[in-house]
Amino acid sequence: MSNLLLLLIVLPAIAGLVCYFVRSSSVRTLTVTATGAVLTAASLALLGQGSFVFEASGLWESLVTVLDFALLFVVLYYGFKLKNLLIKVLTVTQIVLLGFFELFMLDHGVSVPALMGDNLALVMVLIVSIIGSLICIFGIPYMKEHEHHLNLKKSKQPQFFLFLVLFLGAMNGLVLANNILWLYFFFEVTTFCSFMLIGHDGTEVATKNATRALWMNSVGGVALVLGIIFAYLQTGTLGIVEMLAAGPAAGALLVAVGLICLAGFVKAAQLPFQSWLLGAMVAPTPVSALLHSSTMVKAGVYMVLRFSPMYEGTFLSHGIALCGAFTFLACAALAIGQSNGKKILAYSTVSNLGLIIACAGINTPLAIIAAVMLIIFHAISKSLLFLCVGTIEQAIGSRDIENMRGLFKSMPRTAVVTIIGILSMLLPPFGVLLCKWMALEAAADHLFVIVMLALGSALTVVYWARWAGLLMGGRRIESTPEKQPLFTRGPLMLLCAGALVFAFATPFLYREALVPMFAAAHAASHGNILDAATGGFAIYPFIMLIGVGALFAMYRALRSDVRRTSPYLGGAHVGDIEDGSFLGPMETAVPYQASNYYLGEVFGELRLTPWFNIAAGGLIILMLGGAL
């Protein structure tokens, strides 16, 4: 057990240091690939071990404490370097609070197990280790091409892969932490890694967005420290298992849980904290994929789910459900007005994380299982889509989905994989749609939540169907073979295969894996609700038929020989109609252009975001106020 935990948490840090100090591309490739293979094997072996509790020696406890303060002082250094007052104030606040807690409040004679693995933690370790490793491997050829486009004289890949691989170890440590101070340490490591990776290119816009990510996540850090202090004062322990065993919280302890959930909201980029994740789109694609699918933002929803037994049946639980459902609806609306592929994926990520948090707030066994399944399916599909957009961007020089017309002719494999990734977020038999169905079932007693979930689900159809239709429309049968490096093609194919396999294995995953894993704790109070609430699984053969029909329609659309015709211009064309221009203002020739309609006057980002942020801020104040 100790060896497995060292491999999952410490090995990525060692591998990152090797990538940084041994500046050889072949060594770096071997190190990243081998680390990914070891993490995958170790996560599967840990799953086979089952639930566990692990006691760490006093040396490890002291080391984590020292590293915690060292990291905070490093962040403070960057606050001075960037001349950002918010970073300096928030970091000093954390140092003072944590120092006072360690010196004057904490009983160091009482120790708690440092790490623990239950069903939720083991599922998260699998996601981080397998999907995160595939993203890191994809980054090997991607960063070579990325730096070629930037015309860098000196490669920055050693530093890039240091933080990219370190991210995986920090996330594994976070989800396995039982000592809440360890959870805080790994929380801060993920914050610092994201800051360094977002600002990797060193441009003015990259530095600006990295700075925003650092100060905004430092807000979450302050909330987490305060939550830890209040929780310790009420329970007398740092052990998360011991805290959860106390059952639903009340009074000051419920306030502590609310602050911990607020830290999770910030990390998961929930409204009004979404701007840091949207700004992270300036980073290289492997960073975006890692942040959105398997690490940074998943840490936020994990924290909200982890402490869900402590706010079950309270006003805080209802508030969390409302906040998550509102984010799901609002970000689905904002995604409609976007044509930038990465921004569509970003808003979709925040929206789906809101759905997961809404499930945590609903806080029934069905809702919790729906949340866990959404985490799994979303990680696979969203990592696939981000890697596809990065591959396309390097080939055509654009992220705009309007520029992806005709993609099948030049990139047939990537086009098909992208379409499958989009359909996996949209249609049956893929798991995301069925999990939304389960979430709606679970929200049946929450009027405002179920209305927002239903409206948000309808809006997601608009932006996904528009993108998929654009890729499938107007394709010709002739296409040139697509050449890709093995480490580009391999992760894309594996993630695509994972999306397809899990689509048809969804009922099995629900009944045979997740229900036995998560139902035991709720059997006494909820009976056989999980056996009865099977949602779409009862008509799964029909759903599979719909899915097969959709895939067949995609195949026919991509293989059809579409004859292009010029638009009818009512005689206003200039010259021959095939010339593609018409007589415009001032008697000038204006070329016509076909594009999708993005409803900017209704779903404009600048128009809606301020109002959405105000509403979301009000809901969070209401949520925390109800806990007082």
State the separation between the terminal residues, measured CA to CA: 41 Å
Strand content range:
under 5%
Rg: 25 Å
Report the average pLDDT across residues. 88
The proportion of residues forming helix, as a percent range, comes to: over 70%
Q: Can you walk through the features of this model?
A:
It is a single chain. The chain has helices at residues 2-21, 25-49, 58-81, 85-105, 119-150, 157-176, 180-198, 204-235, 240-245, 252-267, 275-279, 285-294, 296-306, 308-311, 315-336, 341-362, 365-396, 407-410, 412-424, 431-442, 447-472, 486-504, 506-519, 523-526, 529-532, 540-559, 600-603, 605-627, and strands at residues 52-54, 115-117, 581-583, 589-591. α12 (285-294) runs parallel beside α13 (296-306). It has a domain at 318-563 and 594-628. The radius of gyration is 25 Å and the shape is globular. The strands form two sheets. A two-stranded antiparallel sheet has the order 1-2. A two-stranded antiparallel ribbon has the order 3-4. The protein is mainly α. The longest helix is centred in the first third of the chain and has 32 residues, at 119-150. The protein contains 28 helices and four strands.
